[in-house]
Amino acid sequence: MTVAAIKEYVGVPRDRVENFNGKQLVYVSWDHHLLFAAPFLLCLAPQTSFRELVEGPLTALVQPDPDSAAIDWTKVEWLKSNQPWMPDFERSLADNGIGHKDQIRMRTPGLASLSAAA
Amino acid sequence: MSTVFIALQANEETRPIIEAIEIDNPLAVVNRQPAMVKIDAPNRLVIRKETIEEQIGREFDLQELHINLITLGGNVTEDDDSLTLSWAE
Amino acid sequence: MDMKVAKKKLGLKEKYRLMTRDLGWEPTYRAKDEVFPYVNYEGIKVHDWDKWEDPFRLTMDSYWKYQAEKERKFYAIIDAHAQNNGHLNITDARYLSALKIFLQAISPGEYAAHKGFARVGREFPGVGTQVACQMQAIDEIRHAQTQIHALSNYNKYYDGFHAFADARDRIWYTSVARSFFDDAMSAGPFEFMIAIGFSFEYVLTNLLFVPFMSGAAYNGDMATVTFGFSAQSDEARHMTLGLECIKFMLEQDPDNLPIVQGWLDKWFWRGFRVLGLVSTMMDYMLPKRVMSWREAWEIYGVENGGALFKDLARYGIRPPKGWDDAEKAIDHMSHQFMLGLYQWSFGTSFHSWIPSDEDMDWLSAKYPTTFDKYYRPRWDHIRKLAAAGTPFKNFGLAKLCQTCQLPVVFTEPDDATMSCHRETEYKGEKYHFCSDGCQHIFDNEPEKYVQAWLPMPSLFQELDGDIGAWMNWVSLRDGEDNGDYSGSRDQRNFDQWRGMATSNT
């Protein structure tokens, strides 16, 4: 649908990738781990490897959860745009097909210290 | 059945108005909360100028209600003598 | 001898006719379409503007008289508050967080509503409508001014009040309310009336002003009760205007029904999201509570909103699309928000805290199906972290909803353990949402919402993620305005001054 307007109405997106000084946004969340109130917003260079994302900001951010020490990163199940997906830890975000504003989810079956059974 | 309501500030000016509303609306339920009074009634509530005037012993313009009115629920019908709140049955 | 004949007092209906209809005129040297160029493009058909009638039949002369009376009452209490150490008579300085949110996010909304009503009062051709909008425009600016004035007394003593105008423009959580009003003001006059006059005023402001202000009274805050109820006395008229407007549109032409229904769906959900913050103010920020958010929703949402939509069914209106999802969210939203506010409190110009045992017992009694199951375990863990000297701060910042601009703190309507992930692609760009409701709103008018200024992404665009620079930019004084209430300057000052006020040492 279009916006009701008296003349042609075209919006200019505010958060296109070229406005981020060479970086991009990535959203990361951990299913059933709602100690973290919302998915994390990260701003990273597209050349960052997936391993750097995981071992850097992500490991630091999930640390307050009692399950964090028990995460086996080789067994985490990943989703991208809500679809099952397998990252290559050694390759960059760009090479892994992680675009600007993509949402990545991680699942760790069996870890649910603070989560009620659904 | 739907509930109509009116809420007024709890103060000396509204005390006789609330009494008048109780006289004119036997089905009304008066809920007293901190600093306010909320009056609920099934489908319809009527506020009459004449009854208020009998309670306060002076002339009363129904629009004076605006000063102490907090909120209401229902369709409003107002003339010189009464203000009615109602939902379509 | 001349006899002075007493003039007969005009009846209400006659006076209303003289003071509205008789003030209008038909333009002669310009076409009506040129004088009122914005009244047709939204597609609403109006055949007879004279059918618009204010049920209160308030005219400007009476309006000034009663508003002056309200102002006199208001200032008598504000003066008494300032003269009698009103800032020490509140139950607890935690309560001030609710006032800080109010001042930063809601009072500017009153000012925005003022601008909107001044504009639509000019854009509508009907005289009755013009007069009603004029009154409401003046009311709204009065609300903004009296709120700022009343709360300025607290600014003399407590942190977090001093830069509400910068907070309004720049801080992340205020963009929620600001975008709501910007959305309404950039719509046409009829949609504006549905957005503010109907959805916000009629369906939702009762939840904002009534139980919360009654709560202010319960917490010893006379200043806020006074501006709250003084404002709310105008709201009764605004609600009536909003309801009148919707009935007018529906009665004028059957073609208006689908347009009006679409606006109701949109603006109910927009308003519900903005009011989410109020749920937290009620359940967590009032030291003494009158009722829970759930109980307030039962009265003003379920009972009164239900009655309203039942009444409008005669025109073919059904309850707004998001109604059922709203009901499912009621027992969760205040907890989800407060957990968020606590972990991001380094970036809020108000304090938050971990609820005490007593608070948590109250919450589990009021939310028996949700609090102990989902939320108490998180608070217990957060308390453990604080006791260990590693208080929980979430520096991850948050994904925001493209439509309502809130952090995506919400869960699936039927699974409170799963965060709600919704996304769409439009013209090659990805957009994220907190709910189906917000995604539908975007899908209907994507060109409007792609322009959203989202504060979290902007922090990286403009300040390279530098939180210190961001704090300076939003006038947030680190260590004073933000963080946990426990150990804050507000807490120290309140305890010390209250001690001085009740003893001679």
UniProtKB/TrEMBL annotation, chain A:
It comes from the Bacteria. This is Phenol 2-monooxygenase P4 subunit. The keyword Oxidoreductase applies. One of its GO terms (molecular function) is phenol 2-monooxygenase activity. It holds the Pfam family Phenol_monoox. The keyword Oxidoreductase applies. It comes from Aromatoleum tolulyticum. Keywords: Monooxygenase, Oxidoreductase.
UniProtKB/TrEMBL annotation, chain B:
This is Monooxygenase. The keyword Oxidoreductase applies. Keywords: Monooxygenase, Oxidoreductase. The keyword NADP does not apply. InterPro entries: MOase_MmoB_DmpM (IPR003454), mOase_MmoB_DmpM_sf (IPR036889). It comes from the Bacteria. Pfam families: MmoB_DmpM. Belongs to the TmoD/XamoD family. The lineage of its organism: Bacteria, Pseudomonadati, Pseudomonadota, Betaproteobacteria, Rhodocyclales. One of its GO terms (molecular function) is monooxygenase activity.
From TrEMBL, chain C:
The keyword Nuclease does not apply. It comes from Aromatoleum tolulyticum. InterPro entries: Ferritin-like_SF, Phenol_Hydrox, RNR-like, YHS_dom. This is Phenol 2-monooxygenase P3 subunit. Residues 414-453 form the YHS domain. Pfam families: Phenol_Hydrox (PF02332), YHS (PF04945). Keywords: Monooxygenase, Oxidoreductase. GO terms for molecular function: monooxygenase activity. The keyword Cell membrane does not apply.
